[in-house]
Design a protein that fits this description.
alpha+beta, Aspartate Aminotransferase, domain 2, 14 helices
């Protein structure tokens, strides 16, 4: 067989052909691709280790190099790395490669916990950009370049900036403007674009941060594209980021036994997008437009979009049509109630529930029936709101007015110092004025309400109590309503 014919084959095809042959595996994994190895046996066929002909993820010069280069061409970066430990490891490695130990760093306060974990590991001194709150929905606004610029002037030692775009709810920032501001100050811009792996792949979608000048961009393939859970990509552009250190941190922080099943899934995803992406994105846009027409007459339920936000003076530049923020603010329903009704009565499983909204994630793989069932359910629920008393509606008044924080927290010590300090757990009513020793966050999406090293304010304690009363998942609070504070 010609070399070019072998090279053109995808990783999954190469694995399938190998496992159909007569090679006997005197190597890991221990299931030995056996057909009788329990209930999961049918998945073991292509699950191999680094053997001849199948490359090494951390020294790729064969089939895995070709697969990563294929992903790189799709997204238009200069270098792309497969991540088998999810976007989390991409964020960790990016921050640690960009910011030297003990340096200052500027973080958008709505970043995922993994950014703060990197700050702890690297003993960084964080400064925070607090996005505004979209009052209509109680969710984070986009990041403004002017605000980033002011903070970089205020903290000139900051050489690394981390933002999240799109947010968990689909809010898109002007990454291009932010990148220009960061670069004027000689800094590195890291964009957690985990929820925007579909960006830039079609004219119906916003531009990717890769196209907008970010230096390091993290994508979760599995969140919005047809790839297995835990698969992600890390893209690099320009020379501002230290690529050598980045590769070393990836080797250090990822498993030394990367899953070929997951890597094959990534390669199949990229190939699917190359072959069918345009068709699937066009289908998604048609379904979204139909959904909007079918729900535009809702009287009580609102579905977020740019059409009524663009003139409000906010910083968002787009709203991902794949993130449906379905708001019941100022109705007799709460977010958890709507979430439960959709799940129990209509068998529609939402992504998450906020205090007064739910989020549905739609992708190029959703069907017409999927879009239609949601539209029909929302119209029926909307009709019920006027005349029906929903169970639990009395709790509506106790919910926070906004789901995002509050006034900026006082930083008492670095996250690393607080995380490593002696601690004890105290009841919420005794925590005011003390220093947080552990993260407290709503999950999903995992954005901290409290970061280790921050002063626990009465404001944040009130919000935590109300989130708990609303039935939301608040991580970092024990079943006895206690949080960890520094001794």
């Amino acid at each position: 067989m010609r070399e070019e014919d072998v090279k053109d084959k995808g990783l999954y095809q190469r694995l399938s052909e190998y496992c159909a042959g007569d090679f006997y595996p005197y190597h890991m994994p221990g299931h030995k691709r056996g057909r009788y190895a329990g209930d999961m046996a049918r998945y073991f066929g292509i699950d191999i280790t680094e053997i001849d002909g199948f490359d090494d993820l951390y020294h790729a010069n064969g089939v895995l190099r070709d697969a990563q280069e294929r992903a790189n061409r799709l997204y238009g970066a200069e270098e792309t790395y497969y991540l088998v430990n999810g976007s989390t490891v991409g964020v960790l490695a990016s921050v640690m490669a960009a910011a030297k130990r003990g340096e200052e760093i500027l973080i958008a306060r709505n970043c995922h916990r993994s950014v703060y974990h990197a700050a702890i590991l690297q003993e960084l001194k964080p400064h925070y950009y607090y996005p505004e709150i979209l009052d209509e929905y109680g969710i984070w606004d986009g990041v403004g370049a002017d605000g980033i610029n002011r903070l970089l002037e205020q903290y000139p030692a900051c050489r690394t900036v981390v933002i999240t775009s799109p947010t968990y709810e689909g809010i898109v920032s002007d990454v291009s403007a932010v990148a220009k501001s960061v670069h004027r100050h000689g800094g590195v811009l890291i964009v957690d674009e985990a929820h925007g792996a579909h960006f830039g792949l079609d004219d119906h979608m916003p531009q990717s941060a890769v196209m907008c000048g970010a230096d390091l961009v993290v994508h979760s393939l599995h969140k919005t594209l047809p790839s297995m859970t835990q698969t992600a990509l890390l893209h690099v552009k320009g020379e501002r980021a230290d690529r050598r250190k980045l590769r070393e941190y990836l080797r250090m922080m990822q498993t030394s036994s990367p899953s070929y099943v997951m890597m094959a899934s990534m390669d199949c995803c990229v190939r699917y997008l190359e072959e069918h992406g345009a068709q699937r994105f066009a289908f998604m846009k048609r379904q979204y437009d139909l959904f909007r027409r079918q729900t535009e007459t809702l009287k009580h339920i609102r579905i977020g979009s740019m059409t009524h936000m663009s003139e409000k003076g906010y910083h968002l530049t787009d709203w991902d049509m794949g993130k449906l923020v379905i708001s019941v603010r100022n109705t007799s329903l709460t977010g958890p109630m709507l979430y439960r009704i959709l799940r129990e009565e209509y068998h529609l499983q939402m992504e998450m529930s906020g205090a007064d909204y739910v989020v549905a994630i739609m992708t190029i793989m959703d069907t017409h029936d999927g879009w239609q069932r949601l539209a029909d359910a929302l119209r029926r629920i909307d009709d019920r709101i006027e005349g029906e008393e929903f169970d639990g509606a009395a709790g509506t008044a106790s919910l926070p007015e906004k789901t995002g924080p509050f006034t900026p927290a006082e930083i008492v010590m670095t996250p690393a110092d607080a995380f490593c300090a002696d601690r004890r757990e105290v009841p919420l009513e005794q925590a005011a004025g003390k220093t947080a020793a552990e993260f407290v966050n709503l999950y999903p999406p995992g954005i901290p309400l409290l970061v280790p090293g921050e002063r626990v304010s009465t404001d944040i304690l009130a919000k935590i109590r109300k989130y708990l009363q609303a039935g939301l998942c608040v991580q970092g609070v024990t079943p006895d309503a206690e949080i960890a504070v520094v001794l």
